Every structure is written in structure tokens, then in C-alpha cells.
Amino acid sequence: MIQQTLADPRLELIATAHDFYQQGWMVGTAGNLSVLLPDGSFWITASGRSKGELSLNDFVRIYPDGKQDSSNNLKPSAETAIHQVLYTLFPQAKACYHIHSVEANLVSRFVTGDSLPLPPLEMLKGLGIYQENPHCLIPIFTNHLQVSQIATDIQQRFTITPAQLPVLLIRDHGVTVWAPSPESARNYIELVEYIFRYMVAAWGVGIGEMGRWGGREMGEMGEMGKTRETREIREMGR
Ligand SMILES: CSC[C@@H](O)[C@@H](O)C(=O)COP(=O)(O)O
Ligand SMILES: [Zn+2]
Questions:
Q1: Which cofactors does this protein require (predicted)?
Q2: At 57, is the secondary structure helix, strand, or coil?
Q3: Which among 55, 132, 182, 222 is least buried, having the fewest CB atoms inside 10 angstroms?
């Protein structure tokens, strides 16, 4: 019988963080990645490490009772509370990835409210949405200085309103996904980044004008969500 050795899940996180760093999504120590283990504990990236050059020692293990373990007394990610709350809310989640991309921050300003309507792109199927012309919303949370407040807001909102997609935005901060495996979490990040890139590009060429993304007129969106043409016309009138 062939003996299979299970790979250390930190190796997958190291490879993914390196790739996301190369994409410009985890620069300057930004972002954090975690993976849940069968005993209910999870490995999370240590705080303040360069995500482009992580090693097996750059992780902290967080146990369900709150105890922590790291080979060299590193602090866990400053955003550990968000990962904890997502694993508690979504028992099927086995990995949780958070990155800071330029596009995630730009689209978080497309609306002034607390939900971002998405264009009905085919890519949404990769996030589990099998509908014709889907109306999808990503919840946007306020970027409180106290991470525990962001975690509380996430907990409260998703307890009342179930998540439509395994994705949330923190305004002017970044995007977070949760998924049933590290491989899916990586795909989810790539998919939402594609959608955000599309939205920024569409706004740049004025396509938003003809869009009714998520059933909402672009005109109902925030200052940046207004089409370039609308902004130019309004500014000419000043
Ligand atoms: C570039 S600082 C970014 C941090 O404040 C935070 O938002 C972040 O994503 C990384 O924090 P970390 O504690 O390294 O996990
Ligand atoms: Zn962050």
C-alpha cells in the first residue's frame, strides 16, 4: 500500500502568498492567509512579515480555546479576529485569505452604502452563482481602527443577513474570502480580483452608464461609481 504523507498546509500558504505578492496584492507586509486544521485550530500568517518571502516559521497556530503557538514567539496577524469570526460563522470554511489590492479599494468607493453591486459576469459561477443575469452584492464594512470592531460588525451583519458570496470588502482596506479549501480560496481571490479589475476598467471607458449592475442604476452609486461622462458633464456645469 502506498503511504501518503499529508503536506504541511503552511507550504500552500507560502506559495500562495508569494504569488499574491508578485501580483501586487500583498505588498509591504499587507494581507494575511489562514488554513483550518481538522482539530479546529488554524495556522495564520504572523503579523508584519513580508508575504513575498514567508517561511514555515512565519505562522502562528491559533487553537479553539484561544491559545497560540509559534516557533519563535511571533504575534499572529493583527486581523486574526476576522479569520476567527469567519470560521465560526461558516463551518464549511477551511481557508480564509485577505489581500490589499488597488482595485478592491477603488471599487469599495464606487458606492457610498454598505453593499457593492456586481456586474453579471460569467466569472460569478466560480463563486457559486448559477443564475441568469445574477444580481450579486458584496457587503462593505467600515475600516475601524479596532480590528475587533470590524470582526463584531461582520459577525452581526452575517448573523442577520446571510452572505450571498464568500466575499467581503473592508472599505479603503481590502478584500477577504473564505472557502472550503486553500485551492478554492485562491481561486476566489483571483475571481473577485478579475471582477474588480473589470469594474474599474468599465468605469474608465464609461460602460457603467449602460449598466444596471445588480439591478441598480450606476447613478444610484457613490461619487466614484458615477460614470466618467456623468462626472465630466456635471463638472462642466459648475
Ligand atoms: C501594510 S499594513 C496592513 C495591516 O494593517 C493589515 O491590514 C494587514 O493586512 C496585514 O496585517 P498583519 O498583522 O501582517 O496580518
Ligand atoms: Zn488588511
A1: Zn(2+)
A2: coil
A3: 132
**Tens digits of per-residue pLDDT, 5-51?**
578 999 999 999 999 999 999 999 999 999 999 999 999 999 999 99
Q: What pLDDT is recorded for position 235?
A: 53
Interface confidence, given as ipTM, is 0.98
Domain count, the chain: 1
Asked whether residue 221 is domain-assigned, the answer is yes
Q: Is 47 close to ligand 1, i.e. is its CB under 6 Å away?
A: yes
Name which residue sits closest to atom 1 of ligand 1, judged by CA. 30
Protein residue whose Cα sits closest to atom 4 of ligand 1:
30
| CA–CA dist 94, 185 (Å, integer) | 9
pTM (2 d.p.): 0.91
Which CATH number goes with the domain that contains 29?
3.40.225.10
Residue of 92, 173, 99 whose CA lies nearest to 140: 173
